[in-house]
Amino acid sequence: MSRSAPKSFHVKSFGCQMNVYDGERMAEMLGAEGMAVASENEADLVILNTCHIREKAAEKVYSDIGRMRRDDGSRPMIAVAGCVAQAEGAEIPRRAREVDIVVGPQAYHRLPALVAEAAQGKRAIDLDLPGLAKFDVLPRRAPKRGASAFLTVQEGCDKFCTYCVVPYTRGAEISRSFDAILEEAQALVDAGVREITLVGQNVNAWAQSGHDLGSLIRALDALPGLARIRYTTSHPNDMTDGLIAAHGDIEKLMPFLHLPVQSGSDRILKAMNRSHSAESYRAVIERVRGVRPDIAISGDFIVGFPGETEADFEATLTLIEEINYASAYSFKYSARPGTPAATMDEQIAPEIMDERLQRLQALLNAQQFAFNQASVGKRCDILIERDGKRPGQRIGKSPWLQSVVVENGPEIGTIVTVDLVSAAPNSLVGIVAIDAAA
Ligand code: 5AD
Ligand code: SF4
Questions:
Q1: Comparing C-alpha atoms, which of 135, 93, 86, 137 is closest to residue 118?
Q2: Model confidence at 133: pLDDT above 90
Q3: Rounded to an integer, what distance in angstroms lies between the CA atom of residue 317 and that of residue 356?
Q4: pLDDT-derived band of residue 109, with 50, 70 and 90 as boundaries?
Q5: Which protein residue has the closest C-alpha to ligand 2 atom 6?
Q6: What is the pLDDT of residue 135?
Q7: What is the whole-number distance in angstroms between the Cα of residue 41 and the centre of ligand 1?
Q8: How wide is the angle at C-alpha 347 spanned by C-alphas 341 and 350, nearest 5°?
């Protein structure tokens, strides 16, 4: 059965920053085809840009699809994109007949063609992993942008941590070229962006003919108009000398490092195939703090990996106490089909995972609050990103990635010097510094 070509679309992204970036690019591409953005309930085409990293992600996608029938009995054209699409493939339309398009995270530059196929009543599936093709084909980025933007520079993973689906859903590690990245960064700056966050599953594994991420950051540093540079997410083994040095002498590189460790127990790190120890992680943090003493450290943690004993878990708590995190993400281990850890003996009972996660998060939350409280009294620059709830109120980010509410803040995209006057667990309040040097 053929249906009319969609005139409007809605992209719903789940998961990591890479997906946020992909979602933005899909929207730009469909916009360039003349389609308009609409709400989820009104769009002719709804794209679920899915995440497969944890929990029953695929189940959630199926229940989302089930809820898409509208009051008048109609339903939009439905595309499933992202990592669940890659992992489940043709199984998706078998289980959910209403799905028209399945497109993997490396193939969405072909979205307009897939939409045209679906409009003719065909089911369109594209799960190729053609590497960098999507970046080459995607249109130039849209003219109007916010204060801060993501820029994907690297994708995929060769590390094969035993719990993780990414090597299977996003493919092998690939780096975009220096020139392509600089060109896109320039386009973002021309569109008013003040801060660029370089993203990649292993962003610090970015490499190009002898250059490392440190050199890329140095090249971006030279772009006039760009005020702040960040990058996420990194692997401890890819913290090169050049990248660490950049933290010491590139002012635009913000003093924040998200460096996942997952566990503080060497036995568990080994079973996870992390290829680093708790000690080598500590040593990397020490080196970064050596060149940038005020750097805020953030991490990712998994509790309840198969075989994790109380002693292993306590080693994680000890590591957290030693490092002292400014922020962190923590998760219960979730067995992902097809990964080596999913079939390991000694899977941990859910109640134990719950209890460990609570203890871990209590410690991490306390550290984050303490970090925010220790910032009170400091004077720093805030990049204003959005309006706050009350008139005149704006919300922006400190150099350490804290959310700061600024009363009577200047317009979005401005960098303003404030005095931090109070702290809450997840944010701070700042007052525009009147006597700050202009
Ligand atoms: N179970 C729980 N957490 C996971 N992560 C990745 N895979 C899993 C899994 N199977 C977490 C890791 C990673 C973050 C992006 O998600 O902490 O750093
Ligand atoms: Fe989710 Fe990982 Fe895929 Fe990002 S890369 S969407 S976090 S599975």
A1: 93
A2: no
A3: 10
A4: confident
A5: 51
A6: 79
A7: 31
A8: 125
Q: Which residue's CA is the nearest one to ligand 2's atom 1?
A: 51
Instruction: Look at the block and give the residue holding tokens 């009147």.
Output: 434
pTM: 0.91
* H/E element, 217: helix 213-221
Amino acid identity of residue 351, one-letter, is E
53 lines ligand 2 (CB under 6 A): yes
Residues 412-426: what's their mean pLDDT? 96
| 324-334 per-position pLDDT tens digit | 999 999 999 99
The CATH number assigned to the domain with range 8-126 reads: 3.40.50.12160
Please enumerate in sequence order all residues whose Cβ is within 8 A of that of 41, keeping only pairs 6 or more positions apart, or say none: 70
Interval between CA 164 and ligand 1 midpoint (Å): 6
Residue 249 sits at φ, ψ, to 5 deg, of -130, 0
| Cβ-Cβ contacts under 8 Å for 349 (sequence gap 6 or more) | none
**From the CB of 85, is ligand 2 less than 6 Å away?**
no
Q: Which fold has domain 136-374?
A: pyruvate-formate lyase- activating enzyme (3.80.30)
The CA-based diameter of the chain, rounded to the nearest angstrom, is 69
Q: Counting ligands in written order, which one lies closest to the CA of residue 51? A: 2
Q: Per-domain residue ranges for the chain?
A: 8-126, 136-374, 376-436
Residue the block writes with tokens 């850890």: 341
Ligand 2 pocket, 86 CB below 6 A? no
Helix (H) or strand (E) holding 286: helix 278-291
The mean of the pLDDT values for the chain is 93
- Identity of residue 156: G
Residue with the smallest CA separation from ligand 2 atom 4 is 16
How far apart are the CA of 221 and the centre of ligand 1, in A?
A: 32
**Which numeric CATH code is attached to 376-436?**
2.40.50.140
Residue 49 DSSP symbol? E
Q: At what angle do helices 350-375 and 310-323 cross, to 10 degrees?
A: 10
Q: Report how far residue 382's alpha carbon sits from residue 409's, in angstroms, rounded to the nearest whole number.
A: 10
Tell me the residue type at 123: R
- Residue 336 CA: nearest ligand 1 atom is 10
Q: Each residue of 366-378: pLDDT tens digit? A: 999 999 999 999 9
Domains 136-374 and 376-436 share a fold: no
Pseudo-torsion of CA 307, 310, 315, 321, nearest 10°?
Answer: 140
Pocket residue to mutate for ligand 1, from 157, 237, 331, 332, most atoms within 8 A of Cβ = 331
pLDDT at 142 over 80: no
Contact 181, 223 (CB under 8 A): no
Question: Is the Cβ atom of 19 under 6 angstroms away from ligand 2?
Answer: yes
